[in-house]
Design brief:
Oligomer: single chain
Radius of gyration: 16 Å
Number of helices: 7
Helix content: over 70%
């Protein structure tokens, strides 16, 4: 378990922010050295970024952007699953900030990604597609 995650679940959650930020900074430096190897790891590190909700949204948006870039690369199928994960993490943060229209857009993209994943492995991705449709319906209800 990562230090930041351990601290987050303890009474020392404020201390967790700094190691999380340091991990992101180091990951960015590694991306500069070898983008192909370290870009996916940066996206994962951004997901684990701790801090205020607005910081988490910005980190989540960056993780989604990285995942989209990876999907456009060679290993589309494996990277689509990472994109789905990034989108599913970002949407609730947007919702918590009251940015429902953005949460809807992100979740609509999540539905599309899950539909594409479903073509490759129906049994594995059908529950995720159902869940993403459910979440989308909840966000759409909040828009009214």
């Amino acid at each position: 378990m990562e230090l930041a995650s351990i601290l987050e679940t303890s009474a020392r959650s404020e201390e967790a922010v700094q190691p999380g930020k340091e991990a992101v900074d180091i990951s960015r430096e590694l991306v500069e050295k070898d983008r192909a190897v370290y870009l996916p790891k940066l996206a994962l590190t951004l997901h684990n970024m701790l801090g205020r909700l607005d910081e988490a949204v910005e980190a989540g948006k960056e993780a989604v952007a990285i995942s989209r870039e990876l999907v456009a690369g060679n290993d589309r199928y494996n990277n689509l699953a990472d994109l789905a994960s990034s989108l599913s993490i970002l949407a609730p943060s947007l919702d918590k900030l009251g940015r429902i229209a953005e949460a809807v857009e992100v979740t609509e993209e999540l539905v599309d990604v899950n539909k594409e994943l479903l073509k490759r492995d129906r049994e594995k991705y059908l529950p995720q597609l159902a869940q993403s449709h459910h979440i989308l319906s909840q966000y759409l209800l909040k828009c009214k």
